[in-house]
């Protein structure tokens, strides 16, 4: 991996993390196009951490509120919702890791994301969790929501819904299955309403990314330095420190501006548009995986 490639991958991560289009899927796709075969999992986790830092900065007021009230309803729902995520990852972690390395799941993953987003949009419009539209008064209201307006997230998030979001987040560890898309969709389907679903989805990403970082660091420590490598730790994480730093900074900077924009804009945009994009991308990748074999090895 070159410094320029790390920069491009970091920028891509920062821009796509807060869109329901799977940042990890795009990272794996671009790594395939670049011919990068080493360190994809470690680098992916690091740039995800970069966007986590940017998200914490953007949501600092709400996060400080929850830190002051750690036993409040929303922090408790985040913790409980993380439990099924951990169970799914522990049960299928080896398979997920293989998908990162091979990219075998990309075509199907993007198509799955498209279907989930389309389902969430349809259910949201029917039961009051649809996209936000502007009223003549200048305010915003959810399509189909009784009485309009927005209720606080504390009144919208339920235990059943939080567990469902947690399961969706666990499944979304698969590359090309959008974490933000699946968790937002699960929140909408659970009746959170779109604003609360988006905020809860972003909050749910924090403990998962931190645990993934801790797991990756633990792997480096337990493997130990490779005596055959000039830099043992560098070899253990399969990426150079310069490339890691460039990717992290690029993801954090672009993620900051993307998060500020998307936390507002995504509430006013139909998920159908993202569904069309991920669906079309998934079909193209699947065709290459099944027929052409230009970028990916043929699946059959």
Q: How much helicity do the residues have? A: over 70%
- Order of adjacent strands in the largest pleated sheet: 1-2
- SS strand fraction: under 5%
- Write down the Rg: 19 Å
Oligomer: single chain
Unreliable sequence segments: 134-149, 225-237
Chain-averaged pLDDT: 82
- Supply the number of helical segments: 13
Supply the helix-strand structural class.
Answer: mainly alpha
Distance between the termini: 29 Å
Features:
about 300 residues, mainly alpha, two-stranded antiparallel ribbon, 13 helices, globular
Could you provide a short overview of the structure?
This protein has 13 helices and 2 strands; from the N terminus they run ααααααββααααααα. It has helices at 3-16, 23-34, 40-58, 60-68, 73-102, 106-127, 153-156, 159-171, 179-189, 194-223, 232-237, 241-265, 271-292; strands spanning 132-134, 140-142. A hairpin with a 5-residue loop joins strand 1 (132-134) and strand 2.
